[in-house]
């Protein structure tokens, strides 16, 4: 890590003002130049490092833990999540059952959509959840999801009699920190809900309010992967007509990097309102294959096996085998490692897939170098195939 001199920081502060860099960045640079820490704050947060293991920390101490690869829940706003809730037991299918409907849909997945969307998404200086950029990027993503839903309805209105029944919709889920989460809903015959998730925020673990965080892989890749799966899912006339057994939701969570804040808020609300979530799949980091291939290992989908629902995870393996053209590999990521953990904490069955064996996952994340150029969009298509296959299969599954 390069050393930055005080003189350079003072010069940077002057240059920031001259170039009309946003005030939040100018303020952070000025604080650095005067010897202050822009992350320093008297406010403290309650985090959970393991079940029943909590401690109060500052914002900077949170980032210190993350720099040490220590994950946690920030439970400051959701201290009672799951404390009185028993875990839901769901029986999942033993094998896939909708191959004839899904296989044609797989052919319409298009990596060019993902490339285009991710190019714009990573152009934001950062998607740090407390920043103006984080708010702006969320608003842009909301518009993209809304466009996907409205286009599906318009494009089929002249060719299918059922399209007029389409009631899919999207809404922001607001948070106190400014960057909203996003929920797209495809209502089914029942309120039983299947959730597909990714997180939209990014961060640079060294001065998140100042430094760039393109977040191409973490988790821009998951964000556009599930968006592409949603686009293609809406090609199916039965989905457009709401004929599936279960409601399907696509979630883009805010503030994952700050301690799974957005997903906790959503699943806490669902728990309190008695929502019946039958399954939740998280797609976090879907695009990096270089380390796997450099190690001489085959490209694969990493299926997380710790802190997940075993039944749902077993069915996901069936879906990978049936609908992907690469195998899966079992791997682990630890406690509170992504937003699926919030669903589990609320008592809902959850699972998590990642780009590779965890030891070969992207090490450029949380830096200025988490860029588009390092991603394998063909691999991201494999994750989109999995997402589409699972969403469709479980949309039509009959749960007891």
Automatic annotation (TrEMBL):
This is Peptide hydrolase. Its EC number is 3.4.-.-. Residues 1-18 form the signal peptide. Keywords: Aminopeptidase, Disulfide bond, Hydrolase, Metal-binding, Protease, Signal, Zinc. It comes from Baudoinia panamericana (strain UAMH 10762) (Angels' share fungus). The keyword Disulfide bond applies. Its cofactor is Zn(2+). Belongs to the peptidase M28 family. M28E subfamily. PANTHER family: AMINOPEPTIDASE YDR415C-RELATED, METALLOPEPTIDASE M28 FAMILY MEMBER. InterPro entries: M28_fam, Peptidase_M28. GO terms for biological process: proteolysis. Monomer. It holds the Pfam family Peptidase_M28. Residues 182-388 form the Peptidase M28 domain. GO terms for molecular function: aminopeptidase activity; metal ion binding; metalloexopeptidase activity. CDD domains: M28_AAP.
């Amino acid at each position: 890590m390069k050393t930055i001199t005080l003189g350079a920081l003072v010069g940077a502060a002057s240059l920031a003002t001259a170039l009309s860099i946003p005030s939040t960045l100018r303020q952070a640079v000025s604080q650095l130049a005067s010897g202050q820490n822009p992350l320093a704050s008297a406010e403290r947060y309650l985090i959970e490092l393991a079940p029943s293991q909590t401690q109060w920390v500052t914002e900077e101490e949170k980032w210190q833990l993350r720099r040490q690869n220590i994950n946690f829940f920030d439970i400051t706003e959701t201290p009672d999540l799951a404390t009185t809730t028993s875990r839901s037991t769901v029986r999942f299918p033993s094998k896939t059952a909708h191959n004839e409907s899904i296989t044609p849909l797989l052919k319409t997945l298009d990596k060019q959509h993902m490339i285009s969307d991710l190019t714009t998404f990573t152009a934001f200086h950062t998607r740090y959840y407390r920043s103006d950029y984080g708010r702006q990027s969320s608003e842009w993503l909301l518009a993209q999801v809304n466009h996907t839903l409205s286009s599906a309805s318009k494009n089929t209105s002249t060719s299918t009699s059922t399209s007029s029944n389409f009631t899919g919709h999207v809404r922001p889920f607001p948070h106190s920190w400014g960057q909203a989460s996003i929920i797209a809903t495809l209502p089914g015959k029942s309120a039983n809900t299947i959730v597909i998730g990714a997180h939209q925020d990014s961060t640079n673990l060294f001065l998140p309010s100042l430094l760039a965080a393109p977040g191409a892989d973490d988790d821009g890749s998951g964000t556009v992967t599930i968006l592409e799966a949603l686009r293609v899912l809406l090609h199916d006339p039965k989905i457009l007509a709401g004929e599936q057994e279960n409601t399907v939701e696509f979630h883009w969570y805010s503030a994952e990097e700050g301690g799974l804040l957005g997903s906790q808020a959503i699943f806490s609300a669902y728990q309190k309102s008695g929502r019946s979530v039958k399954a939740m799949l998280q797609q976090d980091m879907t695009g990096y294959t270089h380390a796997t291939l450099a190690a001489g290992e085959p490209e694969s989908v990493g299926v997380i096996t710790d802190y997940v629902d075993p039944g749902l995870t077993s069915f996901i393996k069936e879906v990978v085998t049936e609908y992907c053209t690469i195998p899966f590999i079992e791997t682990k990521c630890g406690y509170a490692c992504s937003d699926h953990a919030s669903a589990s904490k609320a008592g809902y069955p959850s699972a998590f897939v990642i780009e590779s064996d965890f030891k070969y996952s992207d090490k450029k994340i949380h830096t200025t170098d988490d860029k588009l150029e390092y991603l394998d969009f063909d691999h991201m298509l494999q994750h989109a195939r999995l997402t589409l296959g699972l969403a469709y299969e479980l949309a039509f599954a009959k749960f007891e």
